[in-house]
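Following up on my earlier thread - several people asked me to post the actual chain instead of describing it. Fair enough. Here it is, all 161 residues.
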Amino acid sequence: MIVDFNLLDDSSRVWIFQSDEIISDDKIDLINFNLKSFLQNWSSHGKELKCSYEIKFNLFIIVGVDSSVNNASGCSIDTLTNFIFDLQSKTNLNFFNRLAIAFRSNEKVTIKNMSEIKEMIKNEEFLTETIVFNNLVKTKKEYINTWESMAIESWHKNLFI
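Reply from S.P.:
Thanks for posting it. Predicted structure:
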């Protein structure tokens, strides 16, 4: 059952899938169509999941499941992951490139690969105060409060070592 993302409980589990490039509007339409179709039928051990999604900055897919209704099981999480892999094939995007790092630069969301970020750190163009996206958040509350944070307050602080 798909609901408005704002209606999910703050304890809801979230998964964030980041593309390694900005997604065109045509592909966003395709992603929306496929996500709605998938989530309408997404279940855990035969029980429907109260779920939702958002697409942010034409770069991130955020999927949430309200665990106060039903929890997503290992099998249902695998199904979601396989769906995202299928979506990659349909869109020629990569949602599993862990070397792609998104951050804010002059209020614009930018994405660079890890080696470019390391070079930017050397040149003092990527700082500990740079706003980054911590895609490792686990709950809606964490997503709302700490998804966007300074690099020093996220796993990104390891880039400065």
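The helical segments are 25-41, 74-91, 114-122, 140-146. That should answer part of your original question.
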